[in-house]
Protein backbone atom coordinates (compact mmCIF):
# COMPACT_ATOMS: atom_id res chain seq x y z
CA UNK A 1 0.00 0.00 0.00
CA UNK A 2 2.83 2.39 0.77
CA UNK A 3 4.20 1.87 -2.72
CA UNK A 4 0.87 2.77 -4.30
CA UNK A 5 0.57 5.85 -2.10
CA UNK A 6 4.03 6.99 -3.16
CA UNK A 7 3.11 6.57 -6.84
CA UNK A 8 -0.17 8.45 -6.36
CA UNK A 9 1.82 11.20 -4.64
CA UNK A 10 3.77 11.64 -7.87
CA UNK A 11 6.88 9.50 -7.52
CA UNK A 12 7.95 7.92 -10.79
CA UNK A 13 6.55 4.37 -11.10
CA UNK A 14 9.40 3.40 -13.43
CA UNK A 15 11.81 4.08 -10.57
CA UNK A 16 9.70 2.53 -7.79
CA UNK A 17 8.31 -0.63 -9.38
CA UNK A 18 11.50 -2.44 -10.50
CA UNK A 19 13.02 -2.12 -7.02
CA UNK A 20 9.78 -3.11 -5.29
CA UNK A 21 10.27 -6.87 -5.49
CA UNK A 22 6.87 -7.24 -7.14
CA UNK A 23 6.38 -9.71 -9.98
CA UNK A 24 5.82 -8.41 -13.50
CA UNK A 25 2.12 -9.22 -13.18
CA UNK A 26 1.86 -7.28 -9.91
CA UNK A 27 3.70 -4.31 -11.40
CA UNK A 28 1.27 -4.27 -14.35
CA UNK A 29 -1.65 -4.35 -11.92
CA UNK A 30 -0.17 -1.38 -10.02
CA UNK A 31 0.16 0.58 -13.26
CA UNK A 32 -3.52 -0.18 -14.03
CA UNK A 33 -4.54 1.07 -10.60
CA UNK A 34 -2.71 4.33 -11.27
CA UNK A 35 -4.55 4.74 -14.55
CA UNK A 36 -7.92 4.17 -12.87
CA UNK A 37 -7.38 6.75 -10.17
CA UNK A 38 -9.48 6.95 -7.04
CA UNK A 39 -12.94 5.38 -7.15
CA UNK A 40 -15.62 7.74 -8.37
CA UNK A 41 -18.57 8.41 -6.08
CA UNK A 42 -21.90 8.06 -7.81
CA UNK A 43 -24.96 9.99 -6.81
CA UNK A 44 -27.74 8.01 -5.10
CA UNK A 45 -30.29 8.86 -7.80
CA UNK A 46 -28.21 7.12 -10.49
CA UNK A 47 -27.66 4.11 -8.24
CA UNK A 48 -31.28 3.81 -7.19
CA UNK A 49 -32.54 3.94 -10.78
CA UNK A 50 -30.01 1.42 -12.08
CA UNK A 51 -30.63 -1.20 -9.39
CA UNK A 52 -34.29 -1.89 -10.28
CA UNK A 53 -33.28 -2.14 -13.94
CA UNK A 54 -30.86 -4.94 -13.01
CA UNK A 55 -33.59 -6.77 -11.09
CA UNK A 56 -35.99 -6.35 -14.03
CA UNK A 57 -33.38 -7.82 -16.40
CA UNK A 58 -32.98 -10.85 -14.14
CA UNK A 59 -36.76 -11.18 -13.95
CA UNK A 60 -36.93 -11.03 -17.74
CA UNK A 61 -34.47 -13.89 -18.02
CA UNK A 62 -36.57 -15.89 -15.54
CA UNK A 63 -39.66 -15.21 -17.66
CA UNK A 64 -37.88 -16.45 -20.75
CA UNK A 65 -36.85 -19.58 -18.86
CA UNK A 66 -40.47 -20.13 -17.75
CA UNK A 67 -41.66 -19.82 -21.34
CA UNK A 68 -38.99 -22.31 -22.42
CA UNK A 69 -40.09 -24.65 -19.64
CA UNK A 70 -43.64 -24.60 -20.93
CA UNK A 71 -42.76 -25.07 -24.59
CA UNK A 72 -39.40 -26.79 -25.12
CA UNK A 73 -37.95 -28.26 -21.96
CA UNK A 74 -37.28 -32.00 -21.80
CA UNK A 75 -39.54 -34.06 -19.52
CA UNK A 76 -37.04 -34.40 -16.67
CA UNK A 77 -35.50 -30.94 -16.86
CA UNK A 78 -37.56 -29.45 -14.03
CA UNK A 79 -34.96 -29.89 -11.27
CA UNK A 80 -32.20 -28.23 -13.28
CA UNK A 81 -34.51 -25.45 -14.43
CA UNK A 82 -35.69 -24.98 -10.86
CA UNK A 83 -32.11 -24.56 -9.66
CA UNK A 84 -31.40 -22.04 -12.43
CA UNK A 85 -34.56 -20.05 -11.72
CA UNK A 86 -33.84 -20.12 -8.00
CA UNK A 87 -30.33 -18.78 -8.56
CA UNK A 88 -31.65 -15.88 -10.66
CA UNK A 89 -34.39 -15.11 -8.11
CA UNK A 90 -31.83 -15.09 -5.29
CA UNK A 91 -29.54 -12.78 -7.28
CA UNK A 92 -32.37 -10.35 -7.98
CA UNK A 93 -33.42 -10.46 -4.31
CA UNK A 94 -29.87 -9.89 -3.10
CA UNK A 95 -29.45 -6.93 -5.45
CA UNK A 96 -32.67 -5.38 -4.14
CA UNK A 97 -31.96 -6.03 -0.45
CA UNK A 98 -28.36 -4.83 -0.54
CA UNK A 99 -27.88 -2.43 2.42
CA UNK A 100 -26.53 0.13 -0.05
CA UNK A 101 -30.04 0.43 -1.49
CA UNK A 102 -31.31 1.47 1.95
CA UNK A 103 -28.53 4.07 2.14
CA UNK A 104 -29.42 5.46 -1.27
CA UNK A 105 -33.08 5.64 -0.31
CA UNK A 106 -32.18 7.50 2.90
CA UNK A 107 -30.01 9.95 0.96
CA UNK A 108 -32.78 10.57 -1.56
CA UNK A 109 -35.36 10.94 1.22
CA UNK A 110 -33.22 13.70 2.69
CA UNK A 111 -33.18 15.76 -0.52
CA UNK A 112 -34.53 19.25 0.08
CA UNK A 113 -36.38 19.71 -3.21
CA UNK A 114 -36.94 16.33 -4.90
CA UNK A 115 -38.81 16.13 -8.18
CA UNK A 116 -42.14 14.32 -8.37
CA UNK A 117 -40.38 11.50 -10.24
CA UNK A 118 -37.79 11.14 -7.46
CA UNK A 119 -40.49 11.13 -4.78
CA UNK A 120 -42.46 8.43 -6.59
CA UNK A 121 -39.35 6.34 -7.20
CA UNK A 122 -38.28 6.56 -3.55
CA UNK A 123 -41.79 5.58 -2.41
CA UNK A 124 -42.05 2.62 -4.79
CA UNK A 125 -38.53 1.30 -4.34
CA UNK A 126 -38.71 1.94 -0.59
CA UNK A 127 -41.85 -0.18 -0.36
CA UNK A 128 -40.23 -2.97 -2.42
CA UNK A 129 -37.03 -2.74 -0.34
CA UNK A 130 -38.90 -2.98 2.98
CA UNK A 131 -40.96 -5.95 1.80
CA UNK A 132 -37.96 -7.77 0.34
CA UNK A 133 -35.79 -7.29 3.42
CA UNK A 134 -38.40 -9.19 5.46
CA UNK A 135 -37.69 -12.36 3.46
CA UNK A 136 -34.38 -14.18 3.14
CA UNK A 137 -32.79 -14.82 -0.24
CA UNK A 138 -32.71 -18.53 0.60
CA UNK A 139 -36.50 -18.59 1.06
CA UNK A 140 -36.98 -16.74 -2.23
CA UNK A 141 -34.79 -19.29 -4.00
CA UNK A 142 -36.52 -22.25 -2.34
CA UNK A 143 -39.98 -20.95 -3.30
CA UNK A 144 -38.98 -20.37 -6.91
CA UNK A 145 -37.32 -23.77 -7.19
CA UNK A 146 -40.36 -25.46 -5.63
CA UNK A 147 -42.74 -23.63 -7.95
CA UNK A 148 -40.68 -24.52 -11.02
CA UNK A 149 -40.45 -28.18 -10.08
CA UNK A 150 -44.11 -28.18 -9.02
CA UNK A 151 -45.17 -26.81 -12.38
CA UNK A 152 -43.49 -29.68 -14.19
CA UNK A 153 -45.03 -32.16 -11.77
CA UNK A 154 -48.47 -30.61 -12.30
CA UNK A 155 -48.12 -30.89 -16.10
CA UNK A 156 -47.40 -34.61 -15.83
CA UNK A 157 -50.09 -35.18 -13.17
CA UNK A 158 -52.69 -33.45 -15.32
CA UNK A 159 -51.69 -35.48 -18.36
CA UNK A 160 -51.81 -38.73 -16.37
CA UNK A 161 -54.92 -37.62 -14.42
CA UNK A 162 -53.11 -38.46 -11.19
CA UNK A 163 -53.23 -36.02 -8.29
CA UNK A 164 -50.85 -38.31 -6.38
CA UNK A 165 -48.10 -37.37 -8.83
CA UNK A 166 -48.50 -33.68 -8.01
CA UNK A 167 -49.20 -33.98 -4.28
CA UNK A 168 -45.53 -34.09 -3.06
CA UNK A 169 -44.69 -30.92 -5.01
CA UNK A 170 -47.76 -29.19 -3.63
CA UNK A 171 -46.86 -30.23 -0.06
CA UNK A 172 -43.37 -28.82 -0.61
CA UNK A 173 -44.80 -25.43 -1.60
CA UNK A 174 -47.36 -25.27 1.16
Query: Mind summarizing the main beta sheet?
Result: none
Distance between the termini: 54 Å
Helix content: over 70%
Point out poorly predicted stretches: none
Q: Could you give the count of β-strands?
A: 0
Enumerate how many helices there are, as a single number: 9
Give the overall average pLDDT.
Answer: 80
Order of helices and strands: HHHHHHHHH
What does the model show?
- The longest helix is centred in the first third of the chain and has 28 residues, at 44-71.
- This protein starts with a helix and ends with a helix.
- With 174 residues, it is an all-alpha fold.
- The chain is built from nine helices and no strands.
- The radius of gyration is 25 Å and the shape is flat.
Quick tags:
174 residues, mainly alpha, 77% helix
Brief overview:
By secondary structure, the chain is mostly helical. Helix content is 77%, strand content 0%.
Write the layout of secondary structure elements.
Elements: H1 2-8, H2 13-16, H3 24-36, H4 44-71, H5 78-96, H6 99-109, H7 116-132, H8 137-160, H9 163-173
Amino acid sequence: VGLLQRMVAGEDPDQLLPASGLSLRERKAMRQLLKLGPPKRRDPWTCVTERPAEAEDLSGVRSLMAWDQETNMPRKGGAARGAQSARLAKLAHERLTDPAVGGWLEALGALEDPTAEQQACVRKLGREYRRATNVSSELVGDLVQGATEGFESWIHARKDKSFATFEPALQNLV
